[in-house]
Amino acid sequence: MIIILIRTILLYLFVLFCIRLMGKGELSEMQPFELVILLMISELASLPMENTALPLVNGFTAIIGLLFIQVVLSYITLKSEKARGMICGKPSILINHGNINEKEMKRLRINMNDLIEQMRVKNYHNLTDVEFAILETNGDLSVIPKAEKKNVTLEDLHISPSYDGLPVTLIIDGHINDDNLKKIDCSRDWLLSQIKTKGVNHPKQVLFCYADSNKEIYVHKKDKV
After folding, report:
1. Closest Cα to residue 122, out of 144, 105, 101?
2. Given the DSSP bridges, would you call strands 175-176 and 217-221 parallel, antiparallel or unpaired?
3. In this structure, how many other beta carbons lie within 10 angstroms of the beta carbon of residue 26?
4. Residues 54-71, buried b or exposed e (16+ Cβ, 10 A)?
5. How far apart are CA 121 and CA 108, in angstroms?
6. 92-149 architecture in CATH?
7. CATH 3.30.240.20 residue ranges in the chain?
8. pLDDT tens over the chain, length 225 residues
9. How far, rounded to the nearest angstrom, does the alpha carbon of residue 86 sit from its chain's CA centroid?
């Protein structure tokens, strides 16, 4: 039992390390070859966990081999557009200038219910509002609305927005983040005085606190037990 637990922990840490090496893209929207490699890695990791007779190094070696393949394929697709088209495929236009491309939908075996469902997910409920709908190589649907259906932006209204910047987290679950305080060039005393203006006497009472680009403090208190 202890041996199985140790092997499981080692394999988990090794697979986690490999996935981190593969990049953050693998954790969100994957290309077909990336999905295949992840599925194979999970299968190879499970075999040494289930069968203690298999040497652990065999699982490590096979996973490293797959990791090497993934890195090589990623590099090839990065450098060659032609190779990328062969390995990852090409985007497919399902709606072209407002017209449904039936031939392409049949080729991809996509029915109208699937298309309409994906359109609703993208907040487009009427096909007449769409100029282009493109099925990307990772399976996601990109929708480009018709010109008259696009959302009005501040640029369209000739309004210059103020720069918001990124919020900086200062307190999480009662713990002060000193590194982030240094980033905004502020001290603990300043933070304590700021949260007191929000009716908080101690950081332990704070669930979440952050500062915006103007150093305005926002505080969310913990629920009282």
Report:
1. 144
2. unpaired
3. 19
4. eebeebbebbeebbeebe
5. 20
6. 2-Layer Sandwich (3.30)
7. 92-149, 168-221
8. 677 778 788 887 888 787 777 765 544 456 667 777 778 888 888 887 777 777 888 888 888 888 888 888 888 877 887 877 777 778 899 999 989 898 988 888 888 888 888 888 888 888 888 999 999 887 788 999 988 877 777 777 788 777 667 789 999 989 999 999 999 999 999 999 999 999 999 999 999 999 988 889 999 988 874
9. 25
Q: Which amino acid is at 172?
A: I
Picking from 51, 55, 43, 130, the residue whose alpha carbon sits closest to that of residue 95 is: 130
Give Cβ neighbours of residue 203 (< 8 Å, ≥ 6 apart). 171, 174, 175, 176, 191, 192, 195, 209
**What is the CATH class of 168-221?**
alpha beta
CA distance 147 to 93: 18
What element of type H or E holds 207? strand 206-211
Give the predicted TM-score (pTM) of the model. Answer: 0.61
